[in-house]
Amino acid sequence: MNPSFNKIIAKENLLWAWNKVKYYYENEADFIPDIEEFNEFEINLDEKINIICDELINDKYNPSKIMFMPLPKEKDKKNVPQYRQFFYIPIRDQVVWVAIINVIGPKLDIEMPFWSFGNRLYFPVWYENENVKKKLKCGRYRPSAKKIYRTWSQSWPLFRKAIKLTIKKMSKTEIRDLDDEELLEHNYDYPKEYIIKYIKKGYWKKKSEVYWGSIDFTKFYPKISHDLIISNIEKYAFENTLFDIDQDKEKTIKLISKMLEFRLEDINSSDAYGDKVGFEDLINHNGIPTGLIVGGFLSNIALLNVDKEVEKLLNASHEVAHFRYVDDHVFLGSNVEDLIRWIKTYIDILSRNQFADILNMEKTEPKELGAFITEDNCKNEKKENVAQDFDSLKNACKLDSQNPAPLMTLTLMKMSNLNHKNSILMKDEEKIAYKDDLIYMLLTDIPNKEIKSSTRISWASSMLNRLIPTIRFYTSEIYQKNIEIMEGELKIRDCRKNIEYKIHEDKTQTILDGYMKIKSKLNSELKSLKNKLEEEEKKLFSQIFDAYCKTVKENYSKPRIWSNAITFCKNTGYNGIGMIFNALNELYVGNFLDIKGFEYIKATLYKQISKDIISAINISESPEVQYRNKCRAKVFLKNITSTEYKFIVNDNFLENQYVLFKISKKYALDYLTDSALFVQANQINAYSYQLLKSLSASYFSIEGECNSLYANLCMAKTITRSFKEKMNTGVSTIDSIINEENMIREYELKTNENADVNLLELIEIVRKSKYGVLDTELFALNIVKELAKYFNSCKTHSITNMFELNNISKMEDLVLSPLNFVIKTDAGKLFRYKTIKTMSKFFTEKKHEITYNKETILKDMRYLPQSSKKTSAYLSQKYFLGIILCKLITKNTRFKDSCNIVANNVVSYTVINELNNHGISSWTRAIISSCLSERKFETKIADLIFPYQKEGRDDTLKDPIELINMEELILTIDIAISKLKFFHADAGGDAIIQLVPVRLEQYNAINNPFYKGDV
Amino acid sequence: MYKKFIRVGFIQTNIDHRLAWTDETGISTWSMRDCVEEMVAEELRKGFDFFNEMLEKPDFVLIPEYSIPTSLEPMLSKFTNISGCIVFCGLDLVKLNGNNVSNRGKVFVPYGWPNMALSSISRKNGSSYIFGKKHYAFEELTWFNDIGANPISDMKCYIFDASELGRIGIAICSDFFDLDRFAIYKGRVHHLFIIAYNKDESSFEVLTEALSRLLLCNVVICNTGFHGNSLAFSPYKDRNERLIYKAIGKNIFAVQAINIPLLKLDEDQKVADKQGHLPLTNSKERKGLEFKIPPGYKKINTSMVPHNLINHKL
What we know:
Chain A is 52% helix and 6% strand. Chain A is mainly alpha-helical and 1015 residues long.
């Protein structure tokens, strides 16, 4: 099988694709996913990926049918509630699509012109200081990145700013805005494909006036031809890549063609929406369904040929500037004639490329322009509706170059300024003023042209939600009063002592009475001070909540705004949930929403409440949250449990959200009834992969009420009960099994001196040794070195071809679990080595064989990396050694519950977090980083497929060192051991103090491969 | 290449221990009271706001022992990123398993330090490194006795390499009296940072000067504002230059930033190493010295983790 097609269907790639889909569903999607399908996929991730992979290999993969799902939209002019057309696409198909784009996407994205800003593929962008100057840096396209598309802030504001700056460059106007200066300064920091040529020096030959025009497409997605997508992929994705073998190209194209066969789920004819799908084109092999995550990128691919033609003309003439954001176009020209000519040429290019009649004349700007560009092209447009006067058109199109009114970026600038304010450093008064700015952005009617109102409102409400928890209503008077009360209390205690010892009893009693009076006065002053602050707090919260209510009523079709209103209640403890439901009901009764829209928003609210309940419980229990915010979260839980919810979700697809809400509400109630018990019960919350795998989603049930649940919200009681019933066993997590099965023996070292120990027992011994010599990095490094030597002696497999990812059947790996490896030493003797000096002898003088215990083999997926667990013995063994090294240092044989779900892929992250509580040297840290980093593996793949993307976008500078084979790993451990010995300081006698060298640069999070979040 | 001077900021939190670790009835408790947590949060905000407004921001910020409860760590991490400073702070009593407790400090390193521009990191989380205390003070042991806690000592010594900002030794309060530690640090560090909650300021002051001279390094103490007397000392030859900073006065919340020497200190350390305990015969070198060299000074080749183990490309 050829490598490139193999790359698309590689399990690693499918896993990366799943992670992207998951992130999209959880953070970016403005629709409600099918939680049953989502959970089932997540719980059975490994199996699901295997099935997809097998089907793809054997050419048996068939995409499932897509489902029509109307989303609410504002009423039309006739006062009829509208809906947005949307299709629900099954998760497995989304995963395959993202997997395809992961591989073919970067090449195509680079082919796209610099003036196309929307739906471009994500790569990280950040600033670095270089010789006092700030320099913009770009990373690579990474299949493992969480985001699919460049973020809004990396695209829309750039689109608008580029237009504004081009106007200034065309008219040779002085650049005064800092915003413009910044764009100009960093333009060349981008890789060459992204440099905005219009603002380059000398692009515009002479100073000129600037005229503008703007067009938009109509029904863009439904009109996109599948053939066009295929032909553009064939034309542009396979140049200079490893897809150079025809057969391989054929396979890829065949897969994409199959994926483009969007078949519609049958629509119930009785359904009021049955006749409104309006997507007949799908049947005719046209159209990209809204709801397909990669749909935006496919639309860019479809326009690639058009873009290329346009690019050629632009390069030849340098007379017009052409900008595109998805289907929104802006053109700039030095005179109206050129502008009209250009737009007509563009329309012609579109027509020749299967985009005839695509213009949405209602959205053409200035309005007068329509008549001039549609004479021959838009037959449907009524000519009498458009202005014929050329002078009037000229006036309408002309721009003031310093303040180009219709293309200004003032709101964006204001948003950017507000975004950059560090509200956390502000005083409460400043925060309140900042809040007013945000409320202004939330409520004020700002034209949609510069920024969509939904984006602005969603941004403002998210910012408010971030700001509010930081307002503390603190006054130093409270602290002072507490000090006075405490001092009074100390005096009272002294007096009581004196009375007890009968020292000046009468006099002391009088003094005591005086102090008691003062204390009581102070207490009441403190109380009234607190009450006053609480009142102020309430007033502020209700003011903001009113703004929220107004916003949701005016923007009722935007689910995210409803969700943000719920989160506001969680962050503040404001009792507004009931009011939010009432507002929704009013909208339904007032015929603003039809029944589908009503159901949809209800489900959105229940989904958000469920999420916020779990978040509020976490906040209440987290030691890392301030007291005030914990109180607010608890009040939210109380409000939730005491509110009556009369609205039930009556939609087949959406009712699971209501079920989930009922489960979450019960959790809230359980938690409030007995938080300690609740937390204890949930410590066994998540399950080992093996156990989860054996359970189907239907096992998750709670008292017969509900039948589904988020995998990551699985609560122990539920699962334990189900599991007990089915398996008739009391076991819970894999760690419990290990304990219950006595896989870690209780070690009385004095009596068991000659016994061999498995690695888990060894960790237990280290734990019990309590601050002795075994509790050292040196010991841990020595043990891991012995283990590495054992792996090296086995020489199972080494990677010969990084692309042979699915070729796993030949492998006969050692099953990696610490229980399967026994250290052949007299364990008890370990304790005889009281000092580091003598322990060093232990490792140098005696041979410590590590053997593989074939009798008690246990497979524990937590010790294997998610992506390469079946790829290479060395990669897996290296990862295993990294985890063992961490465990020996942290002396912890157990994992956090979240690690038990393989789909979470958080083992290395949580293990390294535990390590943060143990001061270790940079040497050991570097070895652990190298062992556990999966990014190195991905970089290798990315380099081989897209070697050209290295240029100007190296984000690997801070990656951990690469240890390419076991010999090199052993050598590095040896160096670390000798360095640590070098840092021993003699403290007299046998005692040695370990000086721990730490390079702070290693702790800047970038060097932490486990840091969650893109640069 | 080391910087000529480094800038050290102090946030002298003013925590009254009688209120912070007692409940309303005056009984000792394990962790900081809520009203004190609020007060500390506000002091941190004021401190970092002050640094943020400065033209030249500090490279390091020191916060006294026992100042930061776990609940304020995320906030401090954000402040670290906003200011771009490395923060050394003392944590509230850390509860380990069972009744075991530990007095610990933490270093917060900004995201992407030292290259990442501040505008790219203000929303990110930095990372941190923990270190502990070896010798507990009598007052602490009394407190632990009251609450039934068993203190655990950290037997290790830490040396932090902050690239162009020099190498740093660290001690928490009473570890300042741990002579073994200084025997180890001698010849290896440029700066010694001490975070303290200490009322015996006079002995600290004497020791500061002595250690600064003996170790040929800057000694900086950030003591609690409740007792006052934060200090910075540098072993200049000219006695008038040695005391760089001193904050006198009790019960005062104070924020300040000062410069302490580095490049010249490092150069003089090298000269001192070359000369060993012999008198400096080369008058040119002697003339060029700005710092008072202790007899027998040996600059130890502290080969820290090389860059190529952290970063394979360099």
